[in-house]
Amino acid sequence: MQRDKVVIIGGGGHAKVIIDILNSSNRYDIVGFTSQSNHQQNLCGVQYLGDDSILSSLMLEGIKYCSIAIGDNKIRKKLFDKLVKEGFTPINAISPSAYVSSSARIGNGVVIMPGAVVNASAIIEDNVIINTLTGIDHDCTISAHSHIAPGVSLAGGVFVGEGTFIGVGSSVIPEVKIGEWTVIGAGSAVVNDISSHVTVVGVPAKKYI
Ligand SMILES: CC(=O)SCCNC(=O)CCNC(=O)[C@H](O)C(C)(C)COP(=O)(O)OP(=O)(O)OC[C@H]1O[C@@H](n2cnc3c(N)ncnc32)[C@H](O)[C@@H]1OP(=O)(O)O
């Protein structure tokens, strides 16, 4: 089977894990990575191509698949919107050791890391990261451009708004609604609805100044 060529956008730790995931499937050939800041020639065996200005010439060479390997939600959204407009297709990078229910709905440009679980009827929208060992239980919605960090547990029916970041090891009780572009600090326990554009931390999670 012919494998599709894909370019990785980003050269940090998140890119390394995405390279691992793509190498463990037979679906894609990684042509290289671009980076604005990391100019090392090699990242886990993948060659550095240049900064993002190289992308238009890659498109002319017929490379239309990309994986946006950037953890920061605002930057990842900006790149997603720009690259889709330019004709790229952000691919899904789903680890073979993640579990994704057949009734879950998964958007485009989604990353699901090793050991993550996405249970029945969950919705994972475009450009979302579900990080290592994180559990997204039944009927959760994770809106576009959000990042759920490693070891997070979302109980059933949780709603996460666009661009929200949930820090490592946090827990959220059932049916809670979290607004958009909000930050939940590492290790928080979210037991009430949380509004948009705030940072909360602690057990139970409260707004921090
Ligand atoms: C594979 C990967 O690595 S994915 C990336 C995963 N990364 C994460 O999960 C990081 C999550 N980030 C955090 O929890 C951060 O601490 C944030 C975003 C909540 C706050 O960051 P900053 O604004 O830089 O806060 P800062 O470090 O200055 O701390 C401010 C105060 O809040 C406290 N604080 C910070 N984070 C937390 C937290 N998670 N829980 C409780 N208190 C906290 C600090 O102790 C400090 O208190 P003090 O003023 O009494 O000393």
TrEMBL record:
Pfam families: Hexapep, PglD_N. Acetyl-CoA binds at residue 147. The active site is at 138 (proton acceptor). GO terms for molecular function: transferase activity. Residues 5-83 form the PglD N-terminal domain. The record marks 139 as: Increases basicity of active site His. Keywords: Repeat, Transferase. Substrate binds at residue 71. NCBIfam families: NeuD_NnaD (TIGR03570). This is Hexapeptide transferase. It comes from Paenibacillus radicis. The lineage of its organism: Bacteria, Bacillati, Bacillota, Bacilli, Bacillales.
